[in-house]
Sequence to fold (103 residues):
Amino acid sequence: MKDFAQKMFLAGMGAFALTKDKAEEIISEMTKKGHIDRDEAQSLLKNMINKGEEEREELKQTVKKEFDKYYKELNLVTSKELNEIKEKIAELEKSIKQENNQD
Fold:
């Protein structure tokens, strides 16, 4: 399950990177052909990058929600919960040893 979420996130990141590269390429071409000037190109690129980052964040939140949903459905414990259980077991083992030594 973790691999699935990780792959989804990385796919989104890859799409964002491709989009940014493609946007830079298109804007560069438009500037070379004189369709837009350098200031417009910088502004347009900045807007496109910001939009891409917003979409990446939305994807990240979507993947997190789905992962959390499946995590709860499978009734898995978190590493924090597991560590708490280990501590309780260690405390119980210590208590049992102390009781056995008193007898």
Notes: Residues 38-73 form the longest helix (36 residues). The CA atoms of residues 12 and 82 lie 31 Å apart. The chain has a mean pLDDT of 79.
